[in-house]
Write a structure and sequence with these properties.
With 195 residues, the chain is an alpha+beta fold. It has a domain of 116 residues: Sandwich (Jelly Rolls). The chain has eight helices and eight strands, in the order ααββββββαββααααα. Strand 4 and strand 5 form a beta hairpin. Helix 4 packs antiparallel against helix 5 and helix 7 crosses helix 8. The longest helix has 26 residues. The radius of gyration is 18 Å and the shape is globular. The chain starts with a helix and ends in a 5-residue tail after the last helix.
Amino acid sequence: MFDQFKEYLRKKVTITDEQFDLISGDIKVKTFPKNQVVLSPGEMSTKTYFVTEGLMRCYSVDSKAKVNIIQFAPENWWIGDRNSLFNEPTDFFIDTIEPTTALIIPRNYFMEAGVHVPCLHALNNTMLNNSIRFMQKRINMLLSATAEERYLDFIKLYPNLTLRVPQWMIASYLGITPESLSRVRKDLAHKHFKV
């Protein structure tokens, strides 16, 4: 698990084995069963998860019990609640869709690790900027894109998830009904697009 995280970091920054050993002491590994809730609304979180195997999701449930999926986190993705990391109770659930192994990263990891490996500060800034860009694009897609455009964007972002998650979860992420998603998939199949 640590080797996978080391390789993830090495694709983004230059880091030696010795440096990695120095900054990995506070990281824990945890394996969760399928459907394990790891964060619930109202809780505070001091950690983020880096998925090494399996699949997690972040979602809310509205007053009508409708599930609104915010993010999926397959292998080599991060998942957590930024508000909760800054001492606000979370509004979200985070759970596992598959049996999942994740690294548990403490709240101040990049700040503290950056003392020993300064390039991690820049990596953290890049990751935060990418997260903001991702959310801005997602909001824009939800507000202005067609269901087909949203689905095609989903496939581009999560190329291996269409076979790993139920259709209703994809529809929830896209902000459409499962019936609408079925129509989109049928239309794309008629256009000879692999769905």
